[in-house]
Design brief:
Helix Hairpins; mainly alpha; 229 residues; 2 domains; 8 helices
């Protein structure tokens, strides 16, 4: 793995605890090549050497993950100092968190929102589903009642109705995901244009937050249907 991959992270003016050299940012000291402890301000994007963009090359992300996994593996630090062993474990753990979060597009968006100061939005039904949600709850209760009565005909009818609703909700999830991923491109465009206007960023972040809220709500509905079926 090249030094560019190893050190393209975590800008810092701290000093190496081993040789005292000023650190230019990176997993290893550029002077003595000793592994460094993770700093509190490090986020998962910078840790993996990426800007806070949402459209990622997932194949490159995987390649970087495996390359850094080998460099951080605790087995390479068995005879090192306690500080270096601790650093290798910290970085291995954070690397796993970074890969797990950033390779999942939805988790990636949720993490970005948290970095930008957004708390997890309250799960809300999309406006066009409000009436359907009321009817869905009625159908779920009807199926539960039919099961208690052991009425096979009513059970079959209720199951068929709920399966139809679940199919529709899954289609709605796919639609929301498509709209969400469009916002990924919008966010990256704002960054590429070096647009630091808070208003421009907030517009995109607000849209993503709302879409994620709707997505979570619908996923819960799908889960509820699956459980009752």
């Amino acid at each position: 793995m090249s030094e560019a991959v190893v050190n393209k992270v975590e800008g810092s003016s701290a000093s190496c605890s081993h040789c005292g050299a000023v650190l230019s940012g990176g997993h290893f000291c550029g002077t003595c090549d000793r592994i460094q402890r993770v700093t509190p301000q490090t986020d998962l994007f910078s840790f993996i050497g990426l800007p806070r963009k949402l459209v990622l090359d997932e194949a490159e992300l995987e390649k970087t993950f495996y390359a850094l996994s080998r460099r951080f593996h605790p087995d390479y630090f068995m005879s090192a100092s306690d500080a270096e062993r601790q650093a290798s474990m910290e970085r291995s753990s954070m690397l796993n968190d970074a890969y797990r979060t950033l390779r999942d597009r939805v988790a990636r968006a949720q993490y970005l929102l948290s970095l930008e100061g957004y708390k997890e939005a309250e799960k809300k039904a999309p406006p066009d589903l409000l009436e359907e949600v009321f009817e869905l709850n009625m159908q779920i209760e009807e199926l539960k009642a039919a099961k208690k009565m052991a009425d096979e005909d009513e059970i079959a009818e209720a199951v068929a109705a709920l399966e139809t609703v679940r199919t529709g909700l899954r289609a709605k999830l796919a639609e929301i995901d498509e709209r969400l991923f469009v916002q990924f491109e919008e966010w990256d465009l704002v960054l590429e244009n070096n647009n630091n206007a808070p208003g421009e960023k907030m517009i995109v972040l607000d849209r993503m937050s709302e879409l994620l809220s709707h997505r979570s709500y619908i996923r819960n509905l799908v889960r509820d249907i699956t459980e009752v079926l």
